[in-house]
């Protein structure tokens, strides 16, 4: 049973870094001759980010949960069918009543893959099937590198044309994301041990890469006049829509889990892996799929949704952990010495001929207590 400390409901520190990055880009955007250098650094950071993610992916962990194919299909359906349907519905309802680019960003958010690290972490905290979560979240990201650009091409105008499909965008994502990811994973037998030992040291590389991409995107957006077209009312509307989207998806996943009779441990996987969207994948993909001046606006819904999903999932994971906690009964005396000591403390005397029967009965009671206090285990 995983022991869980009380979740913090303070803003995610990474969110504070994102806000600081947006503020920096708003006051000191990249301009002129510096743009090619910053863009080159951003491309390198993205490639390094996905190389490390590929190297961190444990093939053994994925294979351990691969047999639960029905659960993985449910997670993929939630990520790539349910979410897009909700996104399309919200955009259709709000068309003409909100900023067009923000609505594009809301739809784009609904097409992204699930997160990996936080999905697995929340599943572990809640007492779910961690092996299946590793497989589902990893599969969602690998599929998303190819499927998300295709869905974007089918469901929105990426380049202002008809279907919006762009082979150049697919090529850029393949070179920037998929190739480094596969290279890192193929090199895992040689560098995996080093990566696993230094995860805390490498975490700033992960987050620093995202912050650099956000800074570059918002610099272009600020130069293009983002804050003259996006106001407080727009941000509050995005907050509300993100919350509505997340609640609908979580409610649908819980309903599906009950309908098909998923075990509790698998229901937790579906709830967390099927309701999240990846900032790590979404921000770099947006840079490849949309014009530079639009990326800052388009990723705003994703940044807002990112914090909401962390906040709500932390609360739910803590609740599941409390519900699944195994009550501990006091250990019963088992050996003759323990029985005699307990009898003395109670002022009892156990005759020698009775000791064998007392020992047997206490062992039986101990087994019954274990059964009584047992909970579902993966």
Task: Give a concise summary.
By secondary structure, this protein is an all-alpha fold. Helix content is 76%, strand content 0%. It has two domains: 13-324, Na+/H+ antiporter like fold, CATH 1.20.1530; 336-373.
Structural overview:
The chain has 378 residues and is mainly alpha-helical. The chain has 2 domains: 13-324, Na+/H+ antiporter like fold (Up-down Bundle), CATH 1.20.1530; 336-373. It has 18 helices and no strands. The radius of gyration is 26 Å and the shape is elongated. The termini are close together. Pfam families: SBF_like. This is Bile acid:sodium symporter.
List the helices and strands and how they pair.
Blueprint: H1 13-27, H2 34-56, H3 59-64, H4 69-94, H5 100-110, H6 117-126, H7 130-155, H8 167-186, H9 188-197, H10 199-223, H11 226-229, H12 232-260, H13 264-273, H14 279-289, H15 292-298, H16 300-324, H17 336-345, H18 355-373
Helix pairs in contact: 1-10, 2-8, 2-9, 2-10, 4-5, 4-7, 4-12, 4-13, 5-16, 6-7, 6-13, 6-16, 7-8, 7-13, 8-14, 10-14, 10-15, 12-13, 12-16
């Amino acid at each position: 049973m995983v022991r869980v400390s009380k979740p913090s409901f303070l803003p995610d520190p990474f969110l504070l870094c994102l806000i600081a990055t947006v503020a920096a880009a708003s006051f000191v955007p990249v301009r002129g001759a510096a743009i090619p250098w910053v863009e080159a650094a951003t491309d390198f950071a993205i490639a390094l980010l996905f190389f490390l993610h590929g190297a961190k992916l444990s093939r053994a962990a994925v294979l351990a949960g691969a047999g639960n194919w029905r659960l993985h299909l449910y997670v993929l359906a939630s990520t790539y069918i349910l979410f897009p349907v909700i996104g399309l519905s919200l955009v259709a309802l709000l068309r003409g009543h909100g900023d067009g680019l923000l609505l594009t960003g809301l739809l784009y958010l609904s097409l992204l893959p699930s997160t990996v690290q936080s999905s697995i972490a929340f599943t572990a905290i809640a007492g779910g099937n961690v092996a299946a979560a590793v497989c589902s979240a990893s599969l969602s990201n690998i599929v998303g590198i190819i499927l998300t650009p295709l869905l974007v091409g089918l469901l929105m105008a990426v380049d202002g044309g008809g279907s919006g499909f762009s082979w150049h965008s697919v090529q850029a994502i393949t070179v920037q994301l998929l190739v480094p990811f596969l290279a890192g994973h193929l090199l895992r037998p040689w560098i995996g041990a080093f990566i696993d030992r230094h995860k805390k040291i490498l975490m700033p590389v992960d987050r620093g890469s995202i912050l650099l991409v956000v800074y570059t995107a918002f610099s272009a957006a600020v130069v293009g006049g983002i804050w003259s077209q996006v106001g407080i009312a727009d941000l509050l509307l995005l907050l509300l829509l993100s919350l509505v989207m997340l609640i609908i998806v979580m409610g649908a996943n819980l309903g599906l889990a009950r309908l098909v009779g998923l075990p509790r441990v698998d229901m937790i996987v579906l709830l967390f892996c099927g309701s999240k969207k990846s900032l790590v994948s979404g921000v770099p993909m947006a840079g490849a799929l949309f014009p530079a001046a639009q990326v800052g606006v388009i990723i705003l819904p994703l940044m807002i949704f990112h914090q909401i999903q962390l906040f709500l999932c932390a609360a739910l994971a803590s609740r599941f952990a409390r519900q699944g906690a195994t009550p501990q009964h006091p250990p019963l005396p088992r050996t003759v010495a323990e029985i005699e000591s307990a009898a003395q403390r109670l002022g009892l005397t156990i005759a020698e001929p009775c000791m064998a029967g007392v020992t047997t009965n206490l062992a039986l009671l101990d087994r019954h207590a274990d059964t009584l206090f047992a909970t579902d285990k993966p």
